[in-house]
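Please, structure for the following, as tokens.
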Amino acid sequence: MDQGSQFTSFAWTDRLRRSGIRISMDGKGRFLDNIFVERLWRSLKYECVYLHAWETGSEAKAGVRKWIAFYNHKRPHSALGGKPPAVIYWQRNETTNPDQQVQRVA
């Protein structure tokens, strides 16, 4: 089980609560908690990390940052009707908060 002390500490859980993130550590629905993150890590590894031989940590950080931007803004997702997550996020945000001005990242 990956409920290490760093993820159950007050500093971490308080930050999550202040950000409006619901925390599930009771074991109920555990697979649902992790399925999306596990899919993300798998995609990151096979589509990015395993394809590069970075020489430095800075190169790796830049490469992962570039892939995350691609994943969120350009990569089509079958579960989202072929749209990237950012498109769905902004559509939902505009629908729920039409009066709020939102700055988009291209």
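The CA atoms of residues 45 and 68 lie 11 Å apart. The longest helix spans residues 30-47.
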